[in-house]
């Protein structure tokens, strides 16, 4: 039996490793000059390859496709991923939020480890699959170099994010040619554009332990953690996570709670104490104790309080406005960055077309779809790569 894997990324390499270890004849087609090109840039070059959580928590972090992933994640759990890499010589470490990284902090070591497991595979680099034809019990593949016939095909082509890594939506194209339904791809885990002009002044400022709150089509959402201002957007873990929920929403209201662990009354007591101890100082000096310096001036400008006003001149109304805004700092939503800027792609091959236990297309026997090509996307924290590995395992371990 000859099996073709189209795409040498995370899911394709994992499928190749498992199949070749089971004695299957595997050819991996990779359009780039090397495999795992997207792996190299994940986790800022460190590769957050999974999350050290149980299956239930993994499923809670799946934005789309949670029910579909139940079988695959139970076949190959985060613990299995950790064991796979450690058993193959890669030392791992678990950091804040149970994020798992290679001890070396080098994403390239993740790729090298999984490539080593694919040593029995025939890997064709710089070979782009251009066309796939279903010949009933076999499949014809036309590349830029040759024509081949295989018994089974695994599509592991990725999504449409980071197109410079080769993720250009090829899997969607092949599926559409084979009459498999594809849901419109959209950006997931992507910066959120903000209209407020102060974004430019705050570019590069990172905020920790804040809550990013949203009302999305009358539904409330909240994410706690770290965020970052860019030139015209907000980014960082909590902003990226929120973006996955608002891609097709018309009405989005955004705000930041700078002090989510303090309620209004507790914050008021702290402010009154600070005011009492610093009566003759400017209000800006009090704000420096509550917010980063760059943000403090903008904060006071937003609520029309002169930064040089003496603390003993601050009225109760002004004080209440400060507290209220610390808990509910409004941002003006201006859409999402385009799909090519997303960490992952939402949308993709309709899950109703796929057997969740084996990743085989229900209407085309011998054709499988795994990884980011599927209409599954997760929050940040290693869950998306775990999806790639779990779907690859479900597919490869069930091919006879």
Structure description:
This protein has 400 residues and is of the alpha+beta class. 31% of the residues lie in helices and 27% in strands. Strands 18-17-14-15-16-13-19 form a seven-stranded antiparallel sheet. Strands 7-2-1-11-21 form a five-stranded parallel sheet, with helices on one face. Strand 15 (219-229) and strand 16 form a beta hairpin. It is elongated. The mean pLDDT is 94.
Overall SS class: alpha+beta
Mean of all residue-level pLDDT scores: 94
Number of strands: 22
Main sheet, how many strands, which sense, barrel?
A: 7 strands, antiparallel
Question: Topology of this protein?
Answer:
Elements lengths: L1 E5 L3 H12 L3 E6 L19 E2 L3 H6 L1 E3 L1 H10 L2 H10 L4 E4 L3 E4 L4 H10 L5 E4 L3 E7 L2 E6 L3 E4 L1 E4 L14 H8 L4 E7 L3 E3 L3 H4 L4 E11 L2 E11 L3 E3 L1 H7 L8 E6 L6 H14 L5 H6 L4 H10 L13 H12 L1 E3 L1 E4 L7 E6 L17 E3 L7 E2 L4 H14 L4
Parallel strand pairs: 1-2, 1-11, 2-7, 11-21
Antiparallel strand pairs: 3-6, 4-22, 5-6, 8-9, 9-10, 12-20, 13-16, 13-19, 14-15, 14-17, 15-16, 17-18
Helix pairs in contact: 1-5, 1-13, 3-13, 9-12
């Amino acid at each position: 039996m000859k099996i073709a894997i189209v795409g040498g990324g995370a899911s394709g390499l994992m499928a190749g490793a498992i199949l070749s270890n089971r004695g299957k004849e595997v050819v991996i087609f990779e359009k780039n000059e090397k495999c795992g090109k997207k792996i190299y840039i994940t986790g800022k070059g460190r590769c957050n390859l999974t999350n050290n959580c149980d299956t239930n928590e993994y499923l809670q972090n799946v934005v789309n496709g949670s029910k579909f992933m139940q079988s695959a994640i139970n076949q190959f759990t985060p613990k299995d991923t950790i064991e796979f890499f450690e058993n193959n010589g890669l030392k791992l470490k678990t950091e804040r939020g149970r994020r798992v990284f290679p001890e070396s902090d080098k994403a390239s070591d993740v790729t090298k480890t999984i490539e080593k497991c694919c040593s029995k595979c025939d890997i064709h680099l710089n070979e782009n699959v251009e066309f796939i034809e279903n010949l009933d019990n076999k499949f014809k593949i036309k590349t830029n170099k040759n024509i081949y016939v295989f018994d089974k095909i695994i599509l592991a082509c990725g999504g449409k994010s980071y197109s410079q890594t080769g993720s250009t939506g090829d899997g969607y194209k092949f599926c559409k040619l084979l009459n498999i339904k594809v849901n419109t791809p959209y950006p997931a885990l992507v910066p959120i554009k903000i209209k407020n002009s102060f974004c430019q002044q705050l570019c590069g400022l990172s905020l920790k332990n804040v809550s990013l709150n949203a009302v999305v089509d009358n539904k409330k959402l909240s994410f706690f953690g770290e965020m970052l201002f860019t030139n015209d957007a907000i980014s960082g873990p909590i902003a990226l996570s929120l973006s996955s929920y608002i891609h097709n929403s018309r009405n989005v209201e955004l705000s930041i709670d700078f002090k989510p662990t303090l309620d209004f009354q507790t914050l008021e007591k702290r402010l009154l104490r600070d005011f009492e101890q610093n009566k003759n100082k400017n209000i800006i000096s009090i704000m420096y104790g509550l917010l980063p310096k760059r943000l403090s001036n903008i904060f006071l400008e937003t609520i029309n309080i002169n930064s040089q006003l003496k603390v003993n001149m601050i009225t109760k109304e002004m004080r209440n406005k400060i507290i209220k805004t610390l808990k509910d700092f409004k941002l003006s939503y201006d859409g999402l960055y385009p799909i090519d800027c997303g960490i992952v792609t939402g949308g993709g091959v309709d899950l109703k077309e796929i057997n969740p236990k084996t990743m085989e297309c229900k209407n085309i026997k011998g054709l499988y779809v795994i990884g980011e090509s599927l209409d599954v996307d997760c929050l940040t924290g290693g869950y998306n790569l775990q999806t790639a590995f779990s779907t690859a395992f479900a597919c490869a371990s069930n091919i006879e």
